[in-house]
Amino acid sequence: KAMGKVAKELGGLRGKLSNQKFLANAPEEVVEEQRERLAAAEAEQAKLEGALSRLAGMYRKYRSLAKLIGEYERELANKPKNHPTLVVLARLEAMRGAKDKSAGYWERALKVKPADASTSLALGELYYRSSRLKDARRIYDQALKSSPSKKNKKAILHKLATLAESEGDIDGAVGYFQRYFKLAPKDIQARLELGD
After folding, report:
1. Are 45 and 3 in contact (CB under 8 A)?
2. Would you say the pTM of this structure is higher than 0.85?
3. What is the pLDDT of residue 117?
4. Distance of CA 41 to CAs 47, 50, 94, 103, Å?
5. What CA–CA distance (Å, rounded) separates 65 from 68?
6. Max CA-CA distance within the chain?
7. Among 127, 124, 171, 158, which Cα is nearest to 143's?
8. Mind listing the pLDDT tens digit for each residue in 69-84?
9. Could you tell me the pLDDT band of residue 109, with boundaries at 50, 70 and 90?
10. What share of residues in the chain are helix, strand, coil (percent, to 5)?
């Protein structure tokens, strides 16, 4: 899923940067920003491809999720604060249905990188799906404070509004939706949800 998203972003950026009209008319700082985004997306794609390749190689070698988890746990024993290893273990444990173990790895990953929005979002979502709504709300609140990205803030505020509503905190839900609408004023679907 992440690789598809990065590939789509790469296609758009490459198309934009190969468009002579864009290059001729856009301010230099905008063009430079697009080049930086392209470089970052290319680096992310290489990282994801490497991780997928290692994972596929390990699966071919071990042929079972339990053995694969064991291999990552040994790696983690050598490097206990390795964020990517903690994230992989969290995802593998979730695939196995071990939600508590998964949550434990996500929590550890969040301690290593407290400002990592994707880790916070994944942990919040796990808590939400596990009906640990107070924990989900706590994690989303933390993520909201640390996330500089408008896109992440919108996702977090929407989740917080939904959580507040499900807990019967109507004033909290309205407050989160109001903050959300400052970032996404034209989101009709969210306005309809608030009306419900």
Report:
1. yes
2. no
3. 76
4. 10, 14, 27, 28
5. 5
6. 55
7. 124
8. 888 899 999 999 999 8
9. very high
10. 85, 0, 15
